[in-house]
Specification:
- This protein has 507 residues and is of the alpha/beta class.
- The protein folds into two domains: 73 residues, no CATH class; 342 residues, Alkaline phosphatase D (PhoD) (Purple Acid Phosphatase, chain A, domain 2), CATH 3.60.21.
- Helices cover 21% and strands 19% of the residues.
- It contains eleven helices and 17 strands.
- The protein has a seven-stranded mixed sheet, with no helix packed on it. A six-stranded mixed sheet has the order 5-4-3-15-16-17, with no helix packed on it.
- The longest helix is centred in the first third of the chain and has 25 residues.
- The protein is globular, with a radius of gyration of 41 Å.
- The N terminus is likely disordered.
- It comes from Phaeodactylum tricornutum (strain CCAP 1055/1).
- Keywords: Membrane, Transmembrane, Transmembrane helix.
- This is Phosphodiesterase/alkaline phosphatase.
- Pfam families: PhoD.
Length: 507
């Protein structure tokens, strides 16, 4: 009699040894029809291909022992243990297969991360790693510094200035950076991504000896070796002017015997090929669309400047010129004429860079205050010209304003310094940092207190609303990280670049 065995369900074909695949005729059960069972060898081979049996023990004596052929006892109970099921789910996969899969995925992820690290732009520099001087990390793309024209000045591939048809909306500016100090501010600038960065003087410190200016040449070489400078040069459009220490002499004026050499070193380093013969002043207008034209003017307040009158008071080296005021000049005849012509060009907003302060009326340091006739001449030229003055030199930051004729207001922001601002303002009444507010110069033109942290300035222009925001920002972080953009670094708590003081004005 043919066995009426039942066909295996697909989900448990390997779990039940009493079911089979195919038609009933394809396999017989020897216990049902009296035929002999498969040999132990055949059964072991078949079992080994799909799983194995475990013996659970002996049954009780049976009255049907003869029928079972087992000497009056039930057959030992055997539980089938499959190697794997064929349902294709993760839970049914063998442990070894799971481990292999996890390891494979982990290795693939590591390869992707490695490829991103190799081919992405190298990370910016972290402040504080002493081996590089300014804290740049070892992944910085360094390049060979070369002297292409035998000038003694290294060649740096600065990024080109924006095309003049571009509308500028974000400008950074600052002054006073010692090449002997860490310069993390370059990394902050790269993170800030200004359209243009204005260097307002004392870009290096290289006061020359009487016979030679080798120290100024070395200052530029030291400046160029900073990894932060190298990392930023190809990413920032930089436009610069000079102040006294990069003109080769403290409080430099027209009597500076090194001024022509210093001017040439400056031109070589920043690759300026069309400077005027009597200084480094420059100007450009950006933006073609009416209502969005920005004029940037860089003055030279050193090359032709006359003498300041000496003061004999403590902590105040100079005082406003008196009897000989008309004999002293700030810019020189050629530069004054150039400035008048420059201001006659149409522009909707102007930023005028003076390396020394213009509006300050409380300082005994170098400032336009010491040449009152020259300052008044400048006021008259700037009347109704929508001009903001940007200045440096003082190693503190601050905001100033003064009324002009016909309701016009002239404003100035001083951003100083990049690397070594002073805790105190230098006034004789200063005792310690606890009296810092009392040390602020008495000056009705200053708006608010000095900013004494290392700082730089920014101007963000909303052309649509005809508003601009001028801010003084932190040049480095108090916690040693100099990133502004958290996507560039795992540490998202840096305060580098945060606003220390800010104003909003219309134009």
């Amino acid at each position: 009699m043919e066995s009426q065995g039942k066909e295996c369900p697909k989900h448990n074909a390997l779990e039940s040894p009493r079911c089979f695949h195919g038609t009933p005729a394809s396999r017989t059960d020897g216990l049902e029809n009296g035929s002999s069972e498969r040999s132990p060898t055949d059964r072991r081979q078949e079992d080994a291909s799909i799983g194995h049996y475990e013996t659970e023990g002996l049954g009780e004596p049976s009255s049907t022992g003869a029928r079972q052929g087992l000497g009056g006892r039930h057959r030992r109970k055997r539980r089938y243990v499959p190697i794997a099921t064929n349902d294709g789910t993760w839970s049914s996969a063998p442990l070894c297969m799971k481990i292999l899969t996890v390891v494979t995925i982990a290795l693939a992820v590591d390869v992707v991360i490695l490829m991103v690290y190799i081919f992405e732009a190298k990370p910016l520099h972290t402040y504080g790693v002493s081996e590089h001087g300014d804290g740049a990390n070892s992944t910085t793309n360094a390049w060979t510094i070369t002297d292409t024209d035998n000038s003694g000045i290294p060649f740096i591939p600065w990024k080109a200035l924006p095309p003049t048809e571009q509308t500028l909306t974000r400008i950074a500016f600052g002054s006073c950076a010692s090449q002997h100090m860490p310069q993390p501010y370059w990394d902050v600038l790269v993170s800030y991504q200004p359209d243009i960065t204005l260097l307002m003087g004392d870009n290096v410190y290289g006061d020359c000896d009487e016979d030679t200016c080798a120290v100024l040449q070395q200052a530029y070489r030291d400046f160029a070796t900073h990894p932060s400078v190298q990392g930023a040069a190809r990413q920032l459009s930089v436009w610069a002017t000079l102040d006294d220490h990069d003109y080769g002499a403290n409080d430099a004026n027209a009597n500076n015997v090194h001024k022509d050499l210093a001017r040439q070193l400056f031109a070589d380093f920043f690759q300026y090929h069309d400077l005027p013969p009597d200084g480094v002043y420059q100007a450009k207008v950006w933006g073609l669309q009416d209502g969005r034209r920005l004029q940037l003017i860089l003055l030279d307040t050193r090359y032709s400047r006359g003498l300041f009158e000496q003061s004999h008071e403590e902590m105040t080296p100079y005082r406003p010129s008196g009897a000989n005021a008309s004999e002293q000049v700030m810019l020189g005849a050629r530069q004054w004429q150039w400035l008048e012509e420059t201001l006659a060009q149409p522009a909707d907003l102007r930023l005028l860079v003076s390396s020394i302060q213009v509006l300050n009326d409380g300082t005994g340091e170098e400032a336009w205050r010491q040449l009152p006739l020259e300052r008044q001449r400048l006021y008259e030229l700037l009347q109704n010209k929508s001009t903001v003055i940007l200045s440096g030199d003082r190693h503190v930051g601050g905001f100033y304003e003064t009324p002009l004729m016909y309701g016009d207001v002239l404003r100035e922001v001083t951003a100083s310094s990049w690397t070594h601002s002073v805790a105190l303002a230098g006034d004789r009444n200063c005792v310690d940092t606890l009296t810092a507010l009392e040390c602020d110069e008495i000056d009705p033109r200053r708006v608010g207190s000095f900013v004494r942290e290392n700082n730089f300035g920014t101007i963000e222009i909303d052309w649509e609303s005809r508003l601009f925001t001028v801010s003084l920002r932190r040049a480095e972080s108090t916690n040693g990280i100099v990133y502004l953009d958290p996507t560039r670094h795992h540490n998202k708590t840096s305060d580098a670049g945060t606003i220390l003081s800010s104003q909003v004005h219309s134009f």
